[in-house]
Structures are given as C-alpha cells and as structure tokens.
Structure prediction request, 362 residues.
Amino acid sequence: MVSVSLCMIVKDEEDVLARCLDSAKDFLDEIIIVDTGSTDSTKSIARRYTDQVFDFKWVDHFAKARNFAFQHATKDYIFWLDADDVLTQEGQQEFVKLKETLDPSIDSVTMDYYLAFDEYGNVTSTLKRNRLVKRERNFQWIGAVHEYLEVGGNIFNSEIAVIHKSEHHDTDRNLNIYEKRLSHGEELSTRDLYYFANELMDHRMYERAIYYYEKFLKTRKGWVEDNIAACGKMADCYLELGRHELEFNSILRSFQYDRPRPEFCCRLGYHFLQKNELRTAIFWYELITDNQSRDTLGQVNLACSTWLPHLQLCVCYDRIGEYNLAYHHNELARQYRPDDQLILYNKKYLEPLIGRGDDEEK
Prediction:
C-alpha cells in the first residue's frame, strides 16, 4: 500500500477547513497545512488534525505557496485539496481502495472535480485535475494565479470525485494580482492572458475581456481546452453587449480547435430555435445526442450532453407536429430529471397527442 501526504495552503478558512479535513483524514498518512496569513482561527483548527502547520509569507503567488507545502511532504504520494473541497463517503472508500491497489509506476492520478450541481443533485459542471502525484517526481506548481500542477509520465484516470463546496471567495483578489503585475510592466504569459480575461469577464468588464481573449488566441500557444473555452466566453461577452452576430461568430470559431462540443451545439441549436429555423436547430441538438463522448480534461457543462438537448428537441419536434419524437426526447430528458415540472408538464401535454394514457407502460 502506498502512503499519502495531504498538502494544503489556507487563509481565513475557519468556516470550511474542518469539513474538508474530516472528509479526508481517515485515509491520509500525513497532513501538511501552510497558512498564508490567516487572521481567524484557521491555524488552531488545523492543529487539531496535524502538528505540521507552517507559515508562508504571502507574495501574491499561489504556485510558490503550494510548492512550499509540497516541500514538506515525506510520503510516497502527495494529495492536494483546497479548504472548500470535500470528498463524499463513497469517494473516501474509493481512495482507500486506490491506496491499496495503486501501481507504484503511476506518476499522477487524476480525479473528477465537481464544480456545480442542479436542484436535483445532478452534477452540472465538472473537470479533471491531477490530484495525487508521486513525491519523488518533484512535480512543480506553475503560475502566480490559477496555478496548475505540471505533471508527466504515467498518468492514471481514476473515478474518484472531489466536490467543490465554496462558502466564500475574495472576488477581487485574483484580478488585483493581475492588475498589479501589469502595472509593474510584467508581460503576461499565454495562460495568464486567458485567466486575466476570465477575471475581467467575471467583473463585467466585457470589452476589456474580449480584448484579452483575442490577445490570448492570437498567441496560438494556448491549451486547446482553453482556446475552446475562450471562444465560448467571448460569445458570452458579446451576448451581454447585445452584439449577437459576433456572439454567433465566436461560437463557430470554437470549431477551429476541435470537433463541435455539446455546449456549442446547444448554443447553436438555441440560436436557430429562436429564429424558428427548426430543422437547423434539430440538426445541432441531435449532433449532441449522436455523440456522447466526453474525453476531455477541460471543464464540461454536463447539462448540455445529458438532458438539455433532449428537452430542446422535444420543443422543436412539437413545433413541427412530430409529437412521437417530441415525446420520445422528453422521456429521455426525464431520465435525468424525473421531477422536473416542465418535463412532467410536457409529458402530460403530449400523451393525448400520441394516443397514450397515463396508465400505460413507459
């Protein structure tokens, strides 16, 4: 069985730190907490779980803080979490199995990162992160903001999920770090251009965000998933600005980088649905249902590859009078959201049109 060190960086996390550590402590062999300047009870909470609590003077650089934490690890593998992350009981059990069965030749283990859920508990936004890495490989964190762990070698994709359960967030922190770097004349890296644009968009600075997304894409050095996401985010900016032709062009631009992704097919389907060009809308929605592949490390909106295209196809087929197909797709959507009132309304509305009673077999 391999041994595991947990390495975390924290600041003012008294509301969530115990929840995080309680979800992980039973399968860990070592816990290392690096505090970057807490003024609340974060450190005293951390000391309830470990005596390895260290201070790191904050220098507006997340990678330096994480690398400092990694330097204190002594076990075979290093696992990292943020204070507002948790593992479910199932995830904890799977982690124990992973420790027992992990091939020592594995250099990094990816885990799913669940970012958002709908009102029915379905995961709506997810991505994969390299979460568990072999200590002796000395993998390093890169980047002052939106840092990433640079890994290589033999990578295993696990089914373990980490859930992000944010309770609070300093919404200006990252933006201010970028602005300070620019004011000092620093040239942003390709990756930083993308994440700075994201911060600008989150702060509703849409014109400036578009400028930096364009600057990012023009480098032609971005990760393909970031390139695709930048097109979608530019489309969002243009939508907010009411510039719909440029929004449409930004959606199409994503196809330069890879096959059409479900999120963009849904957007195109909706675009043509709004124009009442129903056959074209159907084409884009059905393209998703014919291709369910999700083999990407980038962020995924699962609604767009599960229930949403089926619900929209129900609308489209109803409008052209093909009620059996409308009912069929509504039922497929209902598999994902059995209590959705809109889907249940559609079911009740369509059943008489196809000669089906409530008591018939599904």
Observations:
- The chain has 14 helices and eleven strands.
